[in-house]
Amino acid sequence: MAEIILKNVTKEYENGFVAVKNINLEIGNNEFVILVGPSGCGKSTTLRMIAGLEDISEGDLYIDGERVNNVSPQDRDIAMVFQNYALYPHMTVYQNIAYSLKIKKVPKKEIDQRVHEVARSLGLEDLLDRRPGQLSGGQKQRVAMGRAIIRKPKAFLMDEPLSNLDAKLRGQMRVEIASIYQRLNTTFVYVTHDQTEAMTLGTKIVVMKDGEIQQTDDPSNLFNYPVNKFVAGFIGTPAMNFFDAEVVEESGQLYLKTKDGKILLNEAKAEKIREAGKVGAKVQCGIRPEHVKRAAEGDRVFSGTVSVFELLGSNAIVYVQTADRMIIMNTDDTERVAHGERLCLSVQPEKVHVFDPDTERTITN
Ligand code: ATP
Predict the structure, then answer these.
(1) Of ligand 1's atoms, which has the minimum distance to the CA of residue 211?
(2) Tens of pLDDT, residues 302-341
């Protein structure tokens, strides 16, 4: 258990590149915090600063109330699991897991007991005599976890721990990590660019872009109330559809007018738009594929022709090419629609996001 606080933390590398810009983050005891964002946004740098593997250029890092900017990695009592596992190839699984206790000169009997305990919890008991070269990717991953767990650290830091695994194993290990988290009940900080991992594992998700935090929130808020267009587009698969519209007023009601039709805004959204002074203005809008529906001609917001129909089992993803953009619909109506067929689409008005075209910040949250 550890509480980790970053206050105005900046990282400037020796070549002058600023990889992390003045970030503030509070990671509570036992939280599972995910750092997510596109390649190069500063996730690993942030994690490495917490671990003590990178110096902090400006700002303060606190672990359990103590400022640790100048405390060495070994003395921070946190364990890091890397993407490449970093196992010792010449040692057996047993020796790899036991290593940190051995160098701490823990009595042999206690080491033996703890190694077996950890191996049991990770399903590694039958593999204790093997060397890493004789293990599958998933098994190596579990050994790497075991090596971290046995130290009983205050917190676990993980940098894309599943990225070397195939899709099926990735899914299994994701569940494994979730159950390890439940069992250990300790603090996790986890870097990934896989948003499924982020949404399923995280109690709190930090979305980063260009070294800055865009939004820190729980998975549901991030999905339903993204603060800007970047977060809206980054979280969710398939990604949110974006389209241009004009806010028009008719008989006291506000509509978003698109090329093909219009969306009646509910009172809550209309009020936010009035407050932002956007009546009559051009805005950018977003709608998630699951909130796009087939519609009758007269109710259409978009119209176009079917470009691709993907049947995924219980749902289907339909790509509809409109005059100026592709609109993606995720529907549980799995009846096949032919390529080239014309479709009219509407949207669930209460699910529409409206963004300021200049700042790209949400107006309607
Ligand atoms: P990825 O998902 O690709 O691993 P990331 O979000 O983890 O990306 P970082 O590894 O934190 O990104 O890197 C952030 C930025 O800092 C990148 O633009 C990277 O090129 C740069 N960077 C990383 N290490 C150094 C270094 N030692 N010197 C200079 N720039 C660096």
Answers:
(1) 14
(2) 999 999 999 999 999 999 999 889 999 999 988 888 899 9
Ligand 1 centroid to residue 18 C-alpha, Å: 10
pLDDT at 26: 97
Give the Å distance between the CA of 163 and the centre of ligand 1: 17
| Mutational test site, ligand 1, from 12, 23, 45, max ligand atoms within 8 Å of CB | 45
Report the alpha-carbon distance of residue 161 to residue 148 in Å, rounded: 12
Radius of gyration of the CA atoms of the chain, in A: 25
Output the CA 13–ligand 1 centroid distance in Å. Answer: 9
Which residue type does 8 have?
N
Could you tell me the pTM of the whole model?
0.90
Q: Which residues contact ligand 1 via a Cβ below 6 A? A: 13, 15, 17, 19, 37, 39-45, 193
Torsion of CA 163, 165, 167, 169, to 10 degrees: -130
Q: State how far the Cα of 108 lies from the Cα of 128, in Å rounded to an integer.
A: 16
Domains of the chain: residue spans and CATH:
4-234 (3.40.50.300), 241-355 (2.40.50.140)
Nearest to 6 by CA among 37, 36, 53, 51: 51
